[in-house]
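Homework-ish question, so no full write-ups if that breaks the rules, but can someone show me the predicted structure for this set?
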Amino acid sequence: MRSLSEIETAVKRASRAIGFSWGVAEEVGKCVRLLELFGLPGIKNVNQYFIDKKVKKFENLNLIIEKNLTASEPFCPIILGVSFLDQIKTMESLKKIEFTNIAYPILFIPFLSRASEIIGKKIHIKFDQKEILLNLNVNIYSNILNQELKVIANNVEVQFLENLDNFTDSEWQNLYKLSENTFVEESESLKQGGAGAGLTDND
Amino acid sequence: MNVELRDPNVIMKLSRLGSFHQSKLSFLRSFLREFKDWEYKRDLFNLDQNGYGEAVYSFKKKHRIYSLVCFANEIKDDERSDRVIATKWDAAFTLHDGVPSKNDIERLKNEVPKQEVGRLSFKELTLSRANKSVRVFNHVVEALSNGEQPDLDLLSKVGYLYRTTAVYGSGKFGLADRFRIKNREEINGPFRLEMMLVYLVRQFTFDQVNHVAHHKNPKKAVKLDQKICKNLGIGNSTGLGMAPFIVNHPTLLNNWILSRETALKKIREIKNVSDKDSKLFTDCVKKSLTNITSWNTDSEYQQNKIKSLLNDVKKFINHIENKFDFKTEYAFNEIYLWIEKETCEECIEYIVSIMLEPYNHITEPLVKNMSSEEDKYFNIPTNRTVEELRTVIEKKYPDILDINFEKQENYQNFWFISKNKEEPRLADRFEENGSELEQPLAIARDIKKLYEKLLVSKNSLTIAEFLSNSSELRHVVRRAFIVEKFPYSEIQDNTIGKNIIPIDMLRLKLSFFGALKFDPRSDKWLRICMFQGAPLPNELKNYDEQWVYKTNI
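A: Not a homework solution, just the prediction itself:
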């Protein structure tokens, strides 16, 4: 089994060899490492992408807007990912960002995962009936495990999820009430002396 | 009194970093402190009469066990090389997580001796190999088998029976990634498992030499005297492979240096130095003279440094014995100011290291800060502006900005990875091919390029906007924002200039390992000694913390 350290180093060097700058190559190394850590086929896809890159053209998207359409060639997932990461603070206010035609969309995912950590919000991504939830770079929740992914994702939607509870208020109240059973009912003397501080704090 | 931390622009120069010495903060010393109450055992010793076979040594505490698995093999003299191009070694080692099963040992027997071309698993933590100092090993076998102890003069010239030629960890060749084990309290310090491997290898070398001597002459042979064992360490040959590490791990480098600088600052701020502490300090300085006088090297460069060091340490001893009173307030601050004014860089850093000796309560908490969660600082703060980045560079890289990279001598060399061994190398870009594949280790040149581009960019541009057209500078943009937070994270020098002495970079790292007796064999590789004078495993429970200054040979 290859260690994650070996994966990161080899991918970084390969990315440089294919023509990315060292700084971008460092980003790719980190991202493929993340994919492999989360059990997603990073090496397989980056390898195939680099083979394709030698013979096909991909479009570099440097400035991301609400709707991003390719002129003709599919977007390079790496430059797109780096741009997304770099512009995340300015894009955060947009609720939904749409892309058409992203090559090897799985390579775009770890950049979004890292972006999710930077803004402290979950990010939801949807393409071709595939749904992926990125949880602050702690894990990647998806229905794409063990599935062959298309080389090109035609329509990709990225949404920033507000930090909302995942449960109803009544579910919370029920649970909280149960937790109160670990508390002690205070007597008058405990109310006065139990906390340690005085009754007035005007000193 | 508040003493300022020393200026990174002075301390992070290569000549200063290349004058660093081991200290209490060094990893082999903190390893010994951490593992002193662990149970040490030799679990297996299955060598033939010539000393070839397998052995296993372990450290155990509660449910945690680390086992060193050793494989000693016969090699021909002409196959023995310390260079990384070697493919066979006298012995190969791995540190296994837990107790290795028979299957593990069989598996490792096939892989460990192959080193870089073998495959390890997540159950292995570190990997190494070593060659005998044939001259010393054979002499010791000969002497012991004749019932005599070896010639101490010869031993003192070398200082070890074996020298390692590489110690790998952290995910190399399939070894466990650091993240799998990073939460273990006992390894909360850099390179702790590498230090454990080297320490246990040292014991293996003593056991092996005794074993071979015994089988050579069972009736007459004696064991190597424990005091002699204690005064022998493990050698190490190190080439350029180590140099890029300190460039590639800026926050880690910062945490090592910052810990040492913080210790120095706190010691300089002590108002009244106790008699006990001043005596311990003075005692260490005096006893350490043996370390200097027994420091052998053929390198003229190092010989000159040793000569200056010896002169200056003697001058210093004379000063503190005849002209200095430790009752003076802030005595260590006075001492520091004196050495800075009166002695060479090698001596300044030597005395600084010894100043740490009496102050466990200062150094111990700092040891815990010497690792780094590097990924936390990887992301570039792209919402910052060009103006802010320019200010950071002006503030943090003042001397680098003065280097003229139009001059050939300032970009004479380039770093590359060799195809044969996947190891870093340095070459003259005007004499050798391959500079188009240069590694990103010319930080000074690239920072200057970045600065020049920032000068002609709009102040209000965000870094995200700047990077969209300056991808080639992304690696140094990241570094500049790291150095903003971590003052000692960057070498403040030119790593590709004509006059670079790469061994300065090795020396820095090795000093933090705890190495002694730096012996440059060229400007690109050197030999060192580790654990010379260190307690043997059976002495760990109660040992003299200042052992490093009390070697006898």
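Now go work out the reasoning yourself. Hint: Chain A has one domain: 4-161.
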